[in-house]
Amino acid sequence: MKYVFISLLILAIVITGCAVLGGSRITASDGYYEGSGSGYRGPISVRVRVAGGNITEIEILESEEDHFVGGEAIEELLDLVILYNTTDIDAISGATESSRGFLEAVGNAILGK
After folding, report:
1. Strand, coil or helix: what is 1?
2. How confident is the model at residue 58 (pLDDT cuts 50, 70, 90)?
3. Residues 19-30, buried b or exposed e (16+ Cβ, 10 A)?
4. Mean of the pLDDT values across residues 44-71?
5. Band of the pLDDT at 18, cuts 50, 70, 90?
6. Which of 51, 76, 94, 112 has its CA 20 to 30 A from that of 59?
């Protein structure tokens, strides 16, 4: 029953809407980059791999985000950043700060911040 409730909560968060966050198309030389951002519960650190001018992999190095809300949002955004090669993606409603922190971490990695 607990897992059904959590699944429904996550589904409701995803369906209810998004908040627009700024970002840009990724342009970086091939290599690995690390960056961090401020999530809801603390820092989010990532390692980003760029190959052929596109993001091909993102590894979460550090995150204190709740697995069932912020963590799920980060996993969804991770796939979208790789798919579209941009951080110009809407935040997941209900996990806006976690989303913002993750996208900030990816952007900072690429920009070398």
Report:
1. coil
2. very high
3. eebebeebeeee
4. 95
5. very low
6. 94
The yes-or-no verdict on residue 111 having pLDDT over 50 is yes
CATH fold of 2-111 reads: Sufe protein. Chain: A (3.90.1010)
Task: Look up residue 50 and give its two tokens.
Answer: 């760029």
pTM: 0.77
Q: Please, what's the largest Cα pairwise distance for the chain? A: 48
Q: Measure the CA–CA gap between 111 and 96, rounded to whole angstroms.
A: 22
Burial classification of residue 102, based on how many CB atoms lie within 10 Å of its CB (0-12 exposed, 13-18 middle, 19 or more buried)? buried
**Encoded tokens for 104:** 């900030």
CA distance 66 to 83: 24
The domain ranges of the chain are 2-111
In the beta sheet, which residues pair with residue 31? 50
SS3 83: helix
